Structures are given as structure tokens and as C-alpha cells.
Amino acid sequence: MTTxxxxxxxxxxxxxxxxxxxxxxxxxxxxxxxxxxxQAQRCLSNPSERxxxxxxRQAESIRIAxxxxxxxxxxxxxxxxxHRRTGVLxxxxxxxxxxxxxxxxxxxxxxxWENVADLFAAAQDLPAGITGRIAAALDELxxxxxxxxxxxxxxxxxxxxxxMIVERLDPPYGAKELADHPIVRAALxxxxxxxxEDATRLITALSYYPDDLALLSWNGALLIEADAAAAMTxxxxxxxxxxxxxxxxxxxxxxxxxxPEVYRRIAEAQRxxxxxxxxxxxxxxxxxxxLVAEVTEVTEQIDNxxxxxxxxxxxxxxxxxxxxxxxRVWRDGVDHKLALLRETFAMLHAGADSERAAALEWxxxxxxxxxxxxxxxxx
Length: 379
Known about the structure:
Helix content is 49%, strand content 22%. The chain is an alpha+beta fold and 379 residues long. α7 (228-271) packs across α9 and α7 (228-271) packs parallel to α10.
């Protein structure tokens, strides 16, 4: 990140104080192929609920294929950037095989923008106490819902994100002025110093009313929103975007591991002697075809998990979240590797067909020779 070398911390005395805010720290995990949410709900003895939570302004444009399962996990003490609070722990289980573990903490007031910068900086490198409690919660939840998980296997890839919802400013302040203010933008990236112009471009700003604002970056989001339902909807959309990134990255890692293995097996098959008409690539062809079908099916499910149909604010927010998280970049990488696998499958299939054709030609020639020899011997 580029900063001005001799820049000093910027005074923020003229900015409004934050009178009421909630900070939520998210971690997202891929624990299996799919999760049967109905069965998972039956597996849980503690209260849980499935519902389409996106019910607020213009939310009729949002379509969720499988409403996720929310599980309350109690409270946990949180110490973050010298803020000591009792956080509320909850999990959200997605049918795509992902689990979100979140710690929600109400912040003390008044809160300065320097405090905001410190909190976002600390959220990028969470203390061991928080990560340990999240890991323990995930282990407990996974053990409970394991019968509902198809092909359970935890991916080494995980995503984390941080969302601060500012419910009230004192005094009230215009969204546009806040969106363009260098201190506010720096705070979102965990910085107290003025950012370079290039760095500020890494932040996307959106607003629906004059008094609300969404600032999005790759590490977190700042939502200034007095409407609790709208704030929940925005946070849920950001969570869906992170789940999409998690799953795309997980399958990108799978393809990275499987492609060298496929090429190694091709080389071994080419070196190995094969009896004519015996398909040396049969097992490999089947494995490649299954892998392509599996990844293609999952990417289609990801695309259909959340749909924002109309050109409204939530559509812009979801698209902006996918943009700042660089989901399209990761998706292009997965598509490229899938294309390589399809080309490999086509090459192997063509090679197998060519070998069979050559073997059949040799068989015909040998039969002709055999008939000629038998005819000569019969004379």
C-alpha cells in the first residue's frame, strides 16, 4: 500500500463521532460438497432457523435458491484493538457446503474514526483468542451436522471479512461527504494516515438515500445505515459474495492440485505398454470427465445461489461486492483450468479412438493375411 512518506496522522475533529455501531467479524469455511439443510436442522439440538432474511426495501428483486440455516452459538468475550466487549457468536450454514462463523459485538460510544481504523486493522490479524473460539465453534457445529454433509472434507481455503454497521452519527453527516473523506476511506483499510490516490480507488462507495452509505473494500465494509432491516440485508449480501469467493477459490485449489496429477497419469499411460484394443486411458478419461462435471455443476450452483434480478440498489451492491473481492478474476482462472481439462479430455478421447482404429486396421490386415496363408496351405 502506497502512502506519503512524511504524512502525519490526519486530524478528524471536524468529523462526526459514531454514537452507535456494531462490528461483525466473519470467517467462511468450505466443509463439504453440499449440505442438506433440512437434515442439518434436525441434527441440531439448539435453536436454529431457516428463513429468507432479505426482506426490506426493494428486496423483492433478491432470489435465494436455498435459504441458509442460522444457528445461535451463545456469547464470547472479545478483545479487539483494546475494545473489550461480549460478542454474540452465530453460524450460518449454506447448502453449497459452506459455513459462516461470525462474532458480533456492539461497540462503545462515542467512537472516533481513529478507533474505527484500529478495529479494521486488528480484524485483518485477529487475536488467537478469537480465531481459537471460531475454530472450536466450527468443529462443534461440523460434528453435529456431519450426517447432513455430502462428502465431508474441509478445504484449507478460508475467507474472512469484517463489517461495521454505523447506526447513528453525532451530529448527522451527509453520505457523499463521508464517502469522499480521506479519513473515512483510510479507516476502512485500517489506516490512520492519508491514502494515496491509487489506494483510494480500491474502495467502492454506494448510497441509496442521502443519509446512508456503503463503503466496500477487499478486507471489510463500512455501512452507515439507520434502518436495521436494510443493514441486515446489506450484510447478508456481502456474506453471500464472500461465500461465492470461498467456493470458487476452493475449487481453484482443487484444480491446481489435480491438473499436475492428470498430466502425470497421461505421461505414465503413454509410457506403459498396452495390449491392442485395451483402452489405456479408460480410467483417466472417466476421472477427468467426473472432475469437469463436478466443478461445472458447483459453479452453476454458485451462480444460481443468489440472484438479484432488477437494476436496483441491491444489484449494484452485490455486483460491487463481487468486484472488490475479485470473484470474477478467480472465476476466470477456474474457467481457464476447466477449459484445459476439457481439451485434455478431448485429446485423450481422440488418442484412444485413434489407437482403437489402428488396432482394428491391424486386425483386418492380419485376418486377410491369415486367410491368404490358409488358402495357400489348402492347395
